[in-house]
# Entry
Amino acid sequence: MFLHNGLHRRKGAMFGLFRKNKLVKIRSLNETTKYGVAATSLKELLKKGSKLLQVPLVGSHICLYEDGTELSEDYFLSLPDNAELVLLAMDERWSGFVCDIGRLLDTDRNSALLIDAAKGLLSDERSPKRRKLLGELMLHLKDSSETENREDDEDWFQGIDVRFKTKSAYMKYNCESRIRGYMKEVDSYAQTIQKPKLKEEYKKTAESLVMQLKSDKYNGCYFNRTEKELNRLCTKDGWFSCQGAFDQDECISLHSINPYGNRESRILFSTWNLDHRNLIPGLRRRGRSFLPWWKHCRTAKAAA
# Structure
């Protein structure tokens, strides 16, 4: 038995001498610098990597940078050259390259670096999906939503009347104006109704809606982030999430936007179509049944 084991170890050692070195790129959890290391086995890579990156060898393990898959000895042997890896201490975990993205987004000092990198990628990017993703990344990184007063973010107020001194005051006015615009559309549609009785019912319903909206100051509170949570449609930081069509519980596409963040987002938000949440589609489609429907959703909140 002793002789057999001795021969087996010598045979394994001789086989290891002929095993080809595999060159990989390895880094630690908390550093982004990658080092080229050559090793014939995972065990050898762990020893070299631990010494190079000053990570305790006991309990250390290695994962793929891309998706966090932990390496076994056989998996290591199947890796292509220059595979990107992460060396982790005993209690450390790695979920893939998204970990790096999360760290960058958590610190404001990296925003400018991300914007510059996204601009560089956009210049050569041909995929519409990736161009959209990079464009939205740049848009949201240029965020100044924490500011409220005009003197603190003059760029946000470009093109806005000087009487508005805060972002919330303008957004409140913006909401009131949009709902008034919807009501003008409701009034103008009455002229297209041919049947007198139906037109009379329509006008009566529209007048009731206007009275409700006036009493609620045209729901300007919806866009005002300084209002109480019950009265606004956004978070306290100004984020809006699409609520979907008026006959759905939520938006399946999970659209979101913060018009308080920068001027570009404010302008883009002004193009968001809120008609899918207002009364106009229902008043037009439902004909004679619109009055019972109005009684069912008579809260003015349905207007936005």
